[in-house]
């Protein structure tokens, strides 16, 4: 987004990096996606992270709840056709499935294998 919407919203906490500013037809509002899994749409769209906050697990395309080889298979198929859109395989949320998404999957797949907790 090219517009600095955050400058028009007052009362954001110091850790506003964990917030998403949403422009609504009725005005601008702030949604903290880290406080509840119900902040985002979908069925179980977020997971509890190691620090107790909620977040999206980058690299988890199969909706199984963990990062595994099946997520790579889904990413690989979407990458082969240069898929774009808000897709499960678009791990960095840049609207296109590319090698940058694989990098996130790879880091988190290794982190989950080592500790059970994704890195990013």
3D architecture notes:
With 120 residues, this protein is of the alpha+beta class. It has two domains: 1-56, no CATH class; 58-115. The chain has two helices and four strands. The chain has helices at residues 69-80, 99-115, and strands at 19-24, 27-32, 47-48, 54-55. Strands 1-2 form a two-stranded antiparallel ribbon. Strands 3-4 form a two-stranded antiparallel sheet. A hairpin with a 5-residue loop joins strand 3 and strand 4. The longest helix is centred in the C-terminal third of the chain and has 17 residues, at 99-115.
Relevant terms:
about 120 residues; alpha+beta; two-stranded antiparallel sheet; 2 helices; about 25% helix; globular
Largest sheet: 2 strands, antiparallel
Element string (H = helix, E = strand): EEEEHH
Structural class category = alpha+beta
Rg over CA atoms = 16 Å
Percent in helix: 10-25%
Count of all domains: 2
| Major sheet: arrangement of strands | 1-2
Mean pLDDT: 73
What's the shape?
globular
Residue windows where pLDDT falls under 50 for at least 5 positions:
1-8
Bin the strand percentage: 5-15%
The rounded distance between the terminal residues' Cα atoms is 22 Å
Instruction: State the total count of DSSP E strands.
Output: 4
With helices defined by DSSP (H or I, 4 residues minimum), what is the helix count? 2
| Oligomeric state as shown | single chain
């Amino acid at each position: 987004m090219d517009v600095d919407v955050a400058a028009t919203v007052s009362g954001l906490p110091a850790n506003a990096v964990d917030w998403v500013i949403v422009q609504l037809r009725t005005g601008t509002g702030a949604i903290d996606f880290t406080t509840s899994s119900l902040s985002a749409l979908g069925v179980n769209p977020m997971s509890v992270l190691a620090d107790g906050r909620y977040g999206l697990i980058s690299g988890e395309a199969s909706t199984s709840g963990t990062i595994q080889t099946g997520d790579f298979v889904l990413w690989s198929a979407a990458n082969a056709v240069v898929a774009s859109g808000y897709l499960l395989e678009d791990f960095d949320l840049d609207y296109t499935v590319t090698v940058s998404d694989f990098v996130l999957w790879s880091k988190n797949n290794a982190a989950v294998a080592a500790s059970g907790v994704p890195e990013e």
